[in-house]
Design a protein that fits this description.
Number of strands: 4
Strand order of the largest sheet: 2-1-4-3
Helix content: 10-25%
Radius of gyration: 15 Å
Structural class: alpha+beta
Shape: flat
């Protein structure tokens, strides 16, 4: 199973922008995640086609399971 931490922000146009990180540490520390997201906004680390990121929207861990189907 592949897990991914998704940090979601709103940009100046109001669109959602997602920054994804593979293999997050679990359990996630909500305080550390919020601090990291605040730092991203304060330091204007990323931008998007809709402008700078200006609001924290959501953080979540996504768990995805992949099962191969044998075709022989």
């Amino acid at each position: 199973m592949a897990k991914r931490l998704e940090l979601k922000f709103k940009n100046l146009e109001g669109s959602t922008v997602t920054i994804s990180l593979d293999n997050p540490i679990e359990p996630a520390d909500p305080v550390a995640v919020k601090q990291a997201m605040d730092n991203i906004l304060q330091n204007d680390v990323f931008s998007s086609s809709g402008g700078a990121l200006n609001e924290i929207y959501q953080a979540r861990i996504v768990d995805r399971a992949v099962t191969d189907i044998p075709l022989d």
